[in-house]
Amino acid sequence: MSKLAIITGGSRGIGYSIAEKFAQMGFNLILMAKTASNLASAKQGLLKINANISIETIAVDFSDSAAVESIAQTITEKHSNIDILVNSAGVLSIEFEHASAATLSTLFSVNCISTMVLTNAISEQMKQARSGYIINIASLAGKSHLPKIGAYAATKAALISYSESLYKHLLPHDVKVSCLCPSVVNTEMTDDGRIANQDKIQTDDLVNAVTYILTLGKGAQLPQLDIDCTPIALANL
Length: 237
Description:
By secondary structure, this protein is α/β, with parallel strands linked by helices. Helices cover about 50% and strands about 15% of the residues. The chain has helices at about 15-25, 35-50, 65-80, 100-130, 140-145, 150-170, 205-215, 230-235, and strands at about 5-10, 30-35, 55-60, 85, 135, 175-180, 225. Strands 3-2-1-4-5-6-7 form a seven-stranded parallel sheet, sandwiched between helices. The radius of gyration is 17 Å and the shape is globular. It starts with a strand and ends with a helix.
């Protein structure tokens, strides 16, 4: 029986790269993202990699946490055994002290609240099954207290804190939790010209990290993994 993985933000960027790897590994997939057309394109590309897997796409705006909560209930009712949840959905804003209430609400809903809502539902099922792996994609910004993206960094700090608590909560139930904290990854979201794309962390680096995490045995835990970007690391020496 094929294993099932859910990937949020699965239509592009980090999420899609992880989906490509999972397709190669033979996982059936549930992809969640905002735009239906992007999801359709992602599904088409993944089926070219492996035509023998099933791929379900769910278009949902993660700024609407109530909608995500409803979908989470539907997923757990439909699928009795979910093996992996990868939370990759996220948005970036460079606003800080001038950020409006609407901007802050969207940032926290997409980057943290909706992720928590979905994860809480999936983790309860995994807890009952005493099996599963949850991988949250956070950011080193959540640990670095950067001045220019303080609002974004606060959402990632919240996700890191949640991941740490979830790890401890699920550890006695044989459910693993890892939080990846990369610095600047080469995606559309970071394509601002400040760092050459080839010098950034590549999405394949995140794929390799996830693959490594999944190879660890039952007795090994990796609750958090920091991945720095070389130009930024050198600048901070």
